[in-house]
Amino acid sequence: MSKHYDVLVIGPVSLDHNIDYLGNERKEVGGAVVASGFAAARSGNATALFTKLNPADADVEARFAGSGADLYWSPSKATCSIRNQYFTADKEKRACTSMGVCDPFRFEELPQIDTAIYHFAGLVYGDFDGELFAEASRHGKVAVDVQCLLRHVEPDKTMAFHDWAEKKQYLPYIDYLKTDAAEAEILTGLTDRAEAAKLLYSWGAKEVLITHNTEVLAYDGKQIYTCPIKARNLSGRTGRGDTTFAGYITERQRAGIEEALLYCTALVSLKMETPGPFQGTRQDVLDYIKEFY
């Protein structure tokens, strides 16, 4: 009998070259699967991770040590690698350059486990295709961070965002859809986040989560919910959206939308105060809620 998990987080690790606005460079093994995986597991959920990389590039076992998640991985010809040049102290403005792209993910590669949620945490267009979501939807709930469907590697290796051409075909397979405010505008043409969430819902996504640097918004077709971000500093801003989404979708398995939104917003507020993935505990988040919410 296969092992049961609350969530399987799927996506490439990335060899990140992060350069801050002062020119300081920091190299680390990052990626959405890291931030999401730690956030889900450290929040007390039975978490599995599936990633791909060239094993010559990084020690994947060491990267996820202490996460509390079970790691599964497969080799890829190349490892995803991204150079992030930040232009402001708050890291809101950056230029991204691709230095390597992982092999695409296929459903038959995924570990033979039982999971409540398939959380697709990709980095660039081509990591996943819509048929992967369709197949996963036959086995569990599907959660997708839309970044990997909009962020394209251009011929000159710069990265640019383009609309997801197949969105209306594949959004109906998605139980939880996460975008940030800019991505929501690319998908819908709307700057109003609440209206964008409603349109994405009308196209088939069952619950929509939109992150912004001031708040997180959720919509389920009935009501718009929002919760403010209360981070005291932004030293750990990288991985903000991934942490939020992992916290929300796992909490939704045991709580209503309002409670899940509060938990994930407090989680990301706390996480953003320290660089790297979330290393705290569920109790730390609950204490943060008591103190600041």
Essential attributes:
293 residues, alpha/beta, UDP-N-acetylmuramoyl-L-alanine:D-glutamate ligase, nine-stranded mixed β-sheet, four-stranded mixed β-sheet, 15 strands, 29% strand
Q: Could you describe the 3D structure shown?
A:
With 293 residues, the chain is an alpha/beta fold. It has one domain (4-292): UDP-N-acetylmuramoyl-L-alanine:D-glutamate ligase (3-Layer(aba) Sandwich). Helix content is 29%, strand content 29%. The chain contains 10 helices and 15 strands. It has helices spanning 32-42, 60-63, 130-136, 147-150, 167-170, 181-188, 193-202, 240-251, 257-271, 282-292; strands at residues 4-10, 14-19, 25-30, 47-53, 70-75, 80-86, 94-100, 114-120, 141-145, 151-153, 159-161, 176-180, 207-211, 215-219, 224-228. It has a 9-stranded mixed β-sheet with strand order 5-4-1-8-9-12-13-14-15, sandwiched between helices. The protein has a 4-stranded mixed β-sheet with strand order 3-2-6-7. Strand 6 and strand 7 form a beta hairpin. Helix 6 packs across helix 7, helix 8 packs antiparallel against helix 9 (257-271) and helix 9 (257-271) packs across helix 10. The longest helix is centred in the C-terminal third of the chain and has 15 residues, at 257-271. The mean pLDDT is 95.
